Amino acid sequence: MSHRNDTSNCCSFKIPGQRNWQTMGSTEQTTEILLCLSPVEVANLKEGINFFRNKSTGKDYILYKSKSRLRACKNVCKHQGGLFIKDIEDLAGRSVRCTKHNWKLDVSTMKYINPPESFCQDELVVEMDENNGLLLLELNPPNPWDSEPRSPEELDFGEVQITYLTHACMDLKLGDKRMVFDPWLMGPAFARGWWLLHEPPSDWLERLCQADLIYISHLHSDHLSYPTLKKLAGRRPDVPIYVGNTERPVFWNLNQSGVQLTNINVVPFGVWQQVDKNLRFMILMDGVHPEMDTCIIVEYKGHKILNTVDCTRPNGGRLPMKVALMMSDFAGGASGFPMTFSGGKFTEEWKAQFIKTERKKLLNYKAQLVKNLQPRIYCPFAGYFVESHPSDKYIKETNTKNDPSELNNLIKKNSDVITWTPRPGATLDLGRMLKDPTDSKGIIEPPEGTKIYKDSWDFEPYLEILNAAVGDEIFLHSSWIKEYFTWAGFKDYNLVVRMIETDEDFNPFPGGYDYLVDFLDLSFPKERPQREHPYEEIRSRVDVIRHVVKNGLLWDELYIGFQTRLQRDPDIYHHLFWNHFQIKLPLTPPNWRSFLTCCEQNGPGISQECKTT
User: Per the database record, which ranges form the Rieske domain (predicted)?
Assistant: First the structure.
């Protein structure tokens, strides 16, 4: 439909070549009129930033007027959908600030300036008519899930069952097929920082072995768990695994992991993958992190199950409405910010208030998303982890997470969506719940006495793997620093970082390395340069940083795993730096064998001169 302001003299005209999008088929591109301004309103536009709200829809927009052109966008932050307001610190009057996380957008260029050199805002089409009225238009591509649409068929009881195992892992019975999402069922995630909160059902390995297909959403180790997959590969290495065709391959590290899986399938985005006559699925990319994050739609006999997993803006915010079941993350706390930061504003009081506020914002965001999409049933998952290692007691105590019941209660206040707070081994019967949500057999809870929460974790085998890197021969040669950062490939950026290896308590590790990296010219100075430069200090537990360096792993192991402590001056998030070390490192690890050979040939006295291979 055409959405207009409450204006009596609103412009009206036909756009050449535009079809009436109200009557267009769902598989064709559509044009939506988001805002209409009268000639008077257009004449009153001021130079710079103008805020508008479509009163009939409640949606907000920003117009930027310069001498040469008009630019426009939705007043929605690309990060987590926050509202922009005028940035009072910008004397030039070109930028707006998000009320959620202080992201800043330069509306004159439609580029985000905080984080610097990061994202661009999607622009709307600005059309003028012969009377100088104005329309804001959005060109919408067809929804890929609407191709070859199917009408929902009635489901028999027991025909579709969803069993929660733990964290983001669901076991779906879909007719005579079995599908599993994101199996993390043993071991830690993010080096040693995350451990399972829930005790998985005792038959989890049998369930994985019986799967006809497994979907793994992305490369983070709470979804792509090599300890879990190693156990599975020992029994069934040919289990079909499906992943999206992300820029950073989900299984980029498979060969180095030693896990023998032989049936990994990379599929294109937005295309139905037919499993049998009743079952198909489609993988979609994230709008904020398309290079690594995905979500999935599973459809059985016309009934859709939407799993948005960890996506910040799944499919750019365009998702199917009124699906049978929707599941998403909810908990928060999946970041080192702000718990691992110190100095400046980062007092314990500030961090506690920030965490409390952020968790509330996330709850409201998820509740609004559910309200907008109107699924029949909603399930919060993918947030059931705990920082259980004793050395991370501080993180565990400060990194409070959202309660799924609180989110479900918020959803029920604002809609008639049915909610399900899962417990390990609980099973939802989709046919029963769709027919009668009050059916006592619609959700079967685990038997009485079933262990729900873990109270012990097998730390030692995993810590031994990390500790093995500490004494590796690589680190006898200080030239490993130049070798590693040259391999990493990040340079020509004005940032100086001090890297400090530490013990468990983040005190300098005896005999450990403490060095500077100047990323402007990729040098390793003894002192900070005289020029003006941003500065970060990163303290890292020696076992984890050396394990990461040795194996060429992504720095999420450090940052999301709470294995660092950070200070920065000024307090700016350097997106290009962190994005590179968290996502864009080379796909193959450093050639340490060649490095050591070079060091042996040159002798210990000149090991720092070893050339990068």
Answer: 37-135
Helix, strand, coil in percent for the chain, rounding step 5 = 25, 25, 50
DSSP secondary structure string for all residues of 285-350: EBSS-TTT-EEEEEEETTEEEEE-TT-SSBGGG---SS-SEEEE------SSTTTTB-STT--HHH
Dihedral through CA 180, CA 181, CA 185, CA 189, nearest 10?
A: 160
Helix H or strand E segment including 380: strand 377-380
Give the Cα-Cα-Cα angle 498, 500, 505 (nearest 5 degrees).
135
- What span, in angstroms and rounded, lies between the C-alpha atoms of 109 and 106? 6
CA angle 55, 57, 59 (to 5 degrees): 85
- pLDDT per position as a tens digit, 175-212: 999 999 999 999 999 999 999 999 999 999 999 999 99
Cis bond before residue 338 (omega within 30° of 0):
yes
Tell me the three-class secondary structure of 87-99, residue by residue.
CCCCCCCCEEEEC
What's the full length of the chain, in residues?
A: 613
DSSP 391: G
Counting residues of the chain whose pLDDT is more than 90, the rounded percentage is 84
For residue 461, what are the contacts with CB-CB under 8 A and spacing of at least 6?
none
Torsion of CA 148, 152, 156, 160, to 10 degrees: 60
Q: Render 397-448 in DSSP notation, one character per residue.
A: HH-----HHHHHHHHHHH---EE----TT-EEEHHHHHH-TT-TTSEEPPPT
DSSP codes joined into one string, 236-266: -TT--EEEE--SS-TTTTHHHHT-----EEE
Among 174, 162, 267, 260, which Cα is nearest to 216's? Answer: 267
**Mean pLDDT of all residues belonging to the chain:** 92
CA distances from 422 to 4, 378, 399, 434 (A): 42, 11, 22, 17
Q: Given the structure tokens 């998403």, which residue do they identify?
A: 328
Going from the C-alpha of 153 to that of each of 144, 145, 271, 431, the distances in angstroms are: 21, 17, 22, 10
Q: For tokens 């995350």, what's the residue? A: 194
Phi, psi (5° rounding) for residue 557?
Answer: -55, -35
Q: Model confidence over 208-260: pLDDT tens digits?
A: 999 999 999 999 999 999 999 999 999 999 999 999 999 999 999 999 999 99
Q: Give residue 89's pLDDT band: very low, low, confident or very high (50, 70, 90).
A: confident
- For residue 12, pLDDT over 50 is answered with no
* pLDDT band at residue 22 using 50, 70 and 90 as cut-offs: very low
Q: List beta partners, residue 194.
A: 189
pLDDT surpasses 50 at 72: yes
Angle CA 576–221–385, to nearest 5: 110
Q: What is the pLDDT of residues 313-368, one digit of tens each?
A: 899 889 999 999 999 999 999 999 999 999 999 999 999 999 999 999 999 999 99
CA distance 383 to 124: 35
pLDDT on residue 25: 37
